[in-house]
Amino acid sequence: MGNDFPLIHLDAIDERLLPELAIILAERHFSIGGDGLLAVGPMPGRNMRLRMFNPDGSEDFCGNGLRCAAMHGKNQSWVDQKFTIEHRGNLVPCEIDAETIITEIGKASYKAEDVPVRFRSRPDLTFQRPAIYSGTEGRLTGSALTTGSTHTVMQPLPGNRLPDDEVFRNVSSKLENDPQFLIRTSVIWRRQVTNGVIQIRIWERGAGETIGCGTGSAAAAIEYFRENDRGGTVEVRNPGGIVWVSVDNWESVISVRGHAAELYRGSINLEDRFNPNTLGKASNLISV
Q1: Is the pTM of this model over 0.85?
Q2: CATH numbers and ranges of domains, the chain
């Protein structure tokens, strides 16, 4: 659904080098390019392990990365139709059917210590920082929450529209790096298309604007469910594609359904960036 990730096997490199490798591989104009790096490997019981790093080298929980990892694991015959992926300390149930991949990413939290954020954050007290958001749009508000990764879901702008480029870039970048957010925040802008359908625009911490975000889609959906006091399924339209987010209610376990595809395979020579002895067991070529 729009995110693209170089994906490598965990046994291909010393894991201590993964943050630096993410910076190198995700650079769009001088390397492979991508929204981050996925590093995956099999686990006992026909399960999997995943680590994801943003283009700035910071490690994160990644909803769309989970689906890419799941599909790769199935193609490698590491897993069966139902399995779990260990990701950032979470055991994520996964299921692959004929056309889609379903992941259960846990519950959302608005607790300040979970987000984490210094100001009070709860469903009935949304985030308001008029000093940052003054301008042509007036006072902008949003809710800070985590769906495995930190997000600030903005209230729809007047006229139920998404922001223009200037507001999107200026506000999102300032909000991402607001010191109130202890590990920064992604920013999800949204509008309601119709009942059960929302559209989002995404600014991801450590990456900037992206055209897909699984945990961000989940965060926008949870806000939709909370505001409408309901559960069910909502279609979330990302710039790069669609995911479907389902819950019994906004405080229950979140299920995300969507697609993934392998675009290409290849190798990259990193001998000019790393000592060959640190890259892995075999050579200085990393397969992606």
Answers
A1: yes
A2: 7-100+261-287 (3.10.310.10), 127-253 (3.10.310.10)
